[in-house]
Amino acid sequence: MDSSVRIENALSWADSTRDSVYRDEVRPHWLPDGERFWYEVSIAPGKREYVLVNATDGALRRADTSPELGLPPAPETRTSEMKLSRRTPRSHGTGPATAIEFTNTTAGPVRLFWVDHAGDRQPYDTIAAGARLRRETYEGHVWLVADASGQTLGVLEANDTRQHLLVEGPAAPPPPRDSASRPPDRSPDGRWELRWVDNNVVLHPTGPDASGADLRVTSDGTAERPYVGPAAWAPDARAFVLTRLTRVPVRQITLVDSSPSGQLPPRTRQLDYIKPGDPLPDPTPILVKLTADPATPFTVRAIDRDLCPTFFTTDGRLNYRWSADGREVYFDYNQRGHQLYRILALDAASAAVRTVVEETSRTFIDYTNKTWREWLPGDRQLLWISERDGHAHLWLYDVAGQAAPRQLTRGEWVVRKVETVDATRGQIWFYAGGVRPGEDPYYLHLCRVNFDGSGFIRLTEGEGTHHVVWSPDRRWFVDTWSRVDLPPVTELRRGDTGALIATLERADASALFATGWSAPERFSAPGRDGHSPIYGVIIRPPGFDPTRHYPVVEEVYAGPQDAFAPKAFSLLPRQQAMARLGYVVVQADGMGTNHRGRAFHSVAWKNLQDAGFPDRIAWLRAAAAARPGLDLSRVGIYGGSAGGQSAMRALLDHSDFYSVAFADCGCHDNRMDKIWWNEQWLGWPLDGSYVAASNLEDAAKLRGRLFLMVGEQDTNVDPASTLQVVERLVRAGKDFEFLRLPGVGHSAAESAPGKRRRLDFFIRNLPPEINR
Question: Which of 143, 166, 169, 170 is nearest to 156 (CA)?
Fold first, then answer.
């Protein structure tokens, strides 16, 4: 069979598996009595079942329609009732699987876009007039509906509840920038409003009894050194804090739209894009105190900067927060280079600055994931997450510093996410990884602990990764858990003990398996050090024959911000399409990725070129030794973004193991990428670690067959990063393939032409036996 036909068949087959798992999603809707809830599940193509549950005893009633159970209609969100924001919507995080239903009641078709983490629109579906579509997604992902002309009709963020968007007309546009609807910097007593005039701040009298002229608080602000908001008022309105900013030039990159709609000549646009090493704005907190003296109605004082000399901030925001009694204002100090993080307290009487929380690291502080905090009522205590003992755990701080911090959780496991804090009961609920002995440490379990560190309990049981939805009064929770090789199981449990009340659903994946879909195998083996287990998955082609030898293709993304090998049950269409062509597809998390403790994570520090390769190669060799059919003489690799950087790096540093690589939109030189991601792991000032991680600098080392792809409208990773690698490879006389996709943004390989070219490249350069 022609390879192009096989590719189209593989892609269409992967897409066809989309709606072939049933009874897998339970979204509880609690009734007013607080003891019953209902949900609906898909049980067959086009068929749904409604279930009423009595939480007190776990009794279930099932029916074909909701009226049979006397249930209220499903809640709807209408686009005409939405209000658009001026801020570019974007997805944040990738939470548990969920779904949104869209109903198009307009007269024409509408288009559905996923808004990715960079804010770029990725086209997904067209919904005909009068049609209804169910879109599987993940909590935290943002979806945008537009009409045929491209006008935004509505934007919706997926959450962990049942959602139905009724598309009936455009949402309200955002208010103009000078609109009165913008919240003013008004004092708590309503007497004053801060206004920003010519780079300075003015106090404007407000309220029904307002009289008198504006009071000019500052007069020395300039365009280069303005006074800026947002300001924060003390609760008693006797003081406020704002920021004086030293501005710096902001780097811009130029994106070329080579084939713009509506015109023949190319179009360019500039984008603010701060890169590692660039100058950053320098903020200084300014304390303004109001007095009763008409001659001197206020005092203005800049704080001492000894404890905060070098802020890392791109916009000058410092997260100001006043104490409940108005005696102190707190703010964050993230030191550039990310080896020091403080929460500081500014004394409103003396303007002295002291440290409330201090984190230090010889490598890096994971400030994007591990600086969660919760101020308890009265602001005398603070909950904080820290890796100071080597693992992410919860601590309780005395804000005044009179008592030493108290560690609330401890052990060879990590706190991943705080779910709820109940200050009245003195308890914290959180998700933890590695807390169940002998289990994959990336599986999430719900736990609880008291503020004094006592009463620790794990509330979930099954071997898999868990997601919980609580009843409104938290007496019960619905727990859905799964593994890559186990379809979702949904249970009802007691909120206090986690005791099982009833199993609500076991997902039915029989239709999925009937298509030839193969569940991934979980596999673990020691990494480079011979003892730290590395966890990953093996996906085999349909009809796998262990007596034959199959080429191996690895999907790689080794960014230190997270861990990426799949854990929950998922269709994995990208990997499954590749496997269907006759490849064994693998994915694993090596050292340098997140959620395994500080030592495991810190391997990435000033060492992004490592990308966990020594661990994953050891893991693959162990897999081939234990599982017949994996041909390690034929290994390829693909990835996008940081994964694109790693895919090319495989042929620079590990060409004795990998022979074929497909690199999509790679950040091939970290000096060319966005500042926050790269200085987080490689530090500041820039040093030789940036050069060592650069595919550009090492391009002449290329051995093997390489495909480079980039979307020319990529706003996440500067497309010039790929183009500069192209130039360096040409200069070095290296053979490779390259495709620049017009009008496409980040993750170009996930576009329709990108998917086809990736599969075609592997078939031509790493042909499976079935295609020989």
Answer: 143
Average pLDDT, the chain: 94
* pLDDT single digits (tens) 133-151: 988 888 889 999 999 888 9
Q: Which domains does the chain have, with CATH numbers?
A: 83-167 (2.60.40.780), 512-771 (3.40.50.1820)
Output the six-digit token pair for 431. 């998700």
Is pTM beyond 0.90? Reply is no
- Can you tell me the distance from the alpha carbon of 303 to that of 2, in angstroms, rounded to the nearest whole number? 71
Q: State the CB neighbour count (10 A cutoff) for residue 331.
A: 23
For residues 712 and 256, the answer to whether their CB atoms sit within 8 Å is yes
> What residues form DSSP beta bridges with 197?
200
Q: Which long-range contacts (CB under 8 A, 24 or more apart) does 45-51 make?
A: 45/19, 51/504
* E strand or H helix at 653: helix 642-653
With beta carbons less than 8 A apart as the criterion, state whether 462 and 506 touch. Answer: no
Residues whose CB is less than 8 angstroms from the CB of residue 212 and which lie 6 or more positions away in sequence, other chains included? 205
Banded model confidence at residue 96, pLDDT cuts 50, 70, 90:
low
Would you give the DSSP letter of residue 750?
G
User: Dihedrals φ, ψ of 254, to 5°?
Assistant: -110, 125
Residue 34: per-residue pLDDT? 95
What 372-378 contacts at long range (C-beta under 8 Å, 24+ apart), as own/partner pairs, is 372/418, 373/343, 374/418, 374/421, 375/321, 376/421, 376/423, 377/324, 377/423, 378/324
* Cβ(245)–Cβ(231) below 8 Å: no
Of how many residues is the chain composed?
772
3-state SS track over 411-453 = CCCEEEEEEEEECCCCEEEEEEECCCCCCCCCCEEEEEEECCC
pLDDT value, residue 660: 99
Report how far residue 143's alpha carbon sits from residue 140's, in angstroms, rounded to the nearest whole number. 10
How, if at all, do strands 132-138 and 97-104 pair? antiparallel
CB contact set of 140 (below 8 Å; sequence gap of 6+): 91, 92, 93, 94, 95, 157, 158
User: What Rg, from alpha-carbon coordinates, does the chain have?
Assistant: 28
Strand partners, 2: none
DSSP codes joined into one string, 386-413: E-TTSS-EEEEEETTSSS--EE---SSS
Instruction: Give me the numbers of helices (H) and strands (E) for the chain, helices first please.
Output: 10, 46
- Could you give the angle at the alpha carbon of 298 between the alpha carbons of 293 and 303, nearest 5°? 140
Q: Read off the amino acid at residue 288.
A: V
Q: How many CB atoms lie within 10 A of CB 729?
A: 21
Q: What is the pLDDT of residue 181?
A: 40
Predicted pLDDT at 180: 40
Q: What are phi and psi of 672, to 5 degrees?
A: -95, -5
State the pLDDT at residue 175.
63
Does residue 596 come out as left (phi exceeding 0), alpha (psi in the -120 to 50 range) or beta?
A: alpha
